[in-house]
Amino acid sequence: MTKKTPPVKKNELVELIFEDITHEGAGVGKIGGYPLFVPYALPGEKAKVKVINVKKNFGFGKLVETVEESPARVDPPCNVYYKCGGCQLQHMSYEMQLEMKRNQVQNALKKIGHIVDIPIHPTIGMEDPWRYRNKVQIPVGSQNGELITGFYRKRSHDIIDDMERCIITDEVNDRMIDAVREIANRLGISAYDEEKNRGLLRHIMVRSGQETKQTMIVLITKKEKIPALEKLVDEIVKTYPEVKSVVQNINPERTNVILGKKSKVLWGDPYIYDEIGGIRFAISAKSFYQVNPVQTKKLYDKALEYAALTGKETVIDAYCGIGTISLFLAKNAKKVYGVEVVPEAISDAKENAKLNQIENAEFFVGQAEKVMPWWKAQGLRPDVIVVDPPRKGCDESFLQAMIDMKPKRIVYVSCNPSTLARDLKILDEGGYETKEVQPVDMFPQTTHIECVVWLELDFVDQK
Ligand SMILES: C[S@@+](CC[C@H](N)C(=O)[O-])C[C@H]1O[C@@H](n2cnc3c(N)ncnc32)[C@H](O)[C@@H]1O
Questions:
Q1: N or C end: fewer C-beta atoms under 10 angstroms in the chain?
Q2: Residue nearest ligand 1's atom 26 by CA
Q3: Whole-angstrom Cα distance, residue 362 to residue 134?
Q4: Strand pairing of 279-284 and 409-414?
Q5: The predicted structure's pLDDT at residue 39
Q6: Catalytic site residue 166?
Q7: If phi over 0 gives left and psi between -120 and 50 gives alpha, with beta otherwise, what is residue 332?
Q8: Is 340 flagged in the annotation as binding?
Q9: What is the per-residue pLDDT for 461?
Q10: 281 lines ligand 1 (CB under 6 A)
Q11: What was the pLDDT predicted at 162?
Q12: Where are the transmembrane segments (predicted)?
């Protein structure tokens, strides 16, 4: 048998017509059926490409020059877009981003979940798809003896030293990063050096309530002791009255994980507040809170619509975080049970229920896959289950427990179309038909997409 050799060689210059785009945002062009993946190339474009990596069945290229440009190509407004890995789609019009995300969901459902012929609605986008993020976590380094802050250059741990702004994050976050870096620099606080495993300040995290304008600063350090701590905190809080909480998180490990296990409040409250849809939330440093509050409201409204509550239902909100969806649902349900693995998030959820005088929501710490069978054994029979798992999707034992509980309706909120499609297939085999899918753009300028899915128990299976 003859071995098929790729039709291109490394470093060769080729001209390609791009037909498609991957879910990571790279253009796909083919030479005699052999696909080349090229970042920043758009479907419909013709371009000169340098081949940089040749594998047996596909290769990678670098865009050298566009010969025919797509009408969807735009100038990326960020000055470090091509260095930073944070955004992948700033060179694409927003309309095309929304369309691409819907297609991505459709393809995953078809290929992985074998789900076709159901309505997948057009992606709900933002009116102004910039400055939407309420949280930023930025690495700290040093250059010529001065502290610098900036995201890492793509596929590296080198800080981009000319990054001044991040235009997808709230302006207040940018200002706070500059302020904290400048004060810490003046007080001689050192940056953590990953290679030598020395130094102190690893990251600065800023979280802000877009509705309340309250801000939390989190200093992530290698060791507990911070020199000139009092002056540092004093200067931050006296200069910036919007700061309501300063927290230190200690991460002594040699790791890529940003937050360590231990946190302590240096000044103010352990949380800040924000509001979505008239519900007030307390958010602490380690709790998950959706990063785009404008779109979160649209996402939760859709989840509520799909849950179709009348006030008589018992509802489970699995992977509930600080109880955001639970509290949205509680207003229209008889009782809501939330489960979440992070203890701090559950104490925030309980606090949030009190804060909003919601008495029909109860929260439990634990792994959803363990708590669900226990609830079932206790005789809990939910009418509706809402799930909002992390990117890896639901554990199979969780899905099975959900199927065994036989709720009439399931609302699945997902930030990963591939694991969503895998889980929908399992639910389909368990008697749950996918009725509708609504993609919501929670992360403009990036390839990420969120979906809300409505599933119903098949009539036959209800007997
Ligand atoms: C995508 S977030 C959703 C949070 C919340 N529903 C919201 O909208 O803010 C997923 C949550 O699942 C939690 N989590 C991860 N694994 C879990 C597990 N095995 N059991 C329960 N919760 C888990 C995470 O801590 C996180 O808060």
A1: N
A2: 321
A3: 27
A4: unpaired
A5: 95
A6: no
A7: alpha
A8: yes
A9: 47
A10: no
A11: 84
A12: none
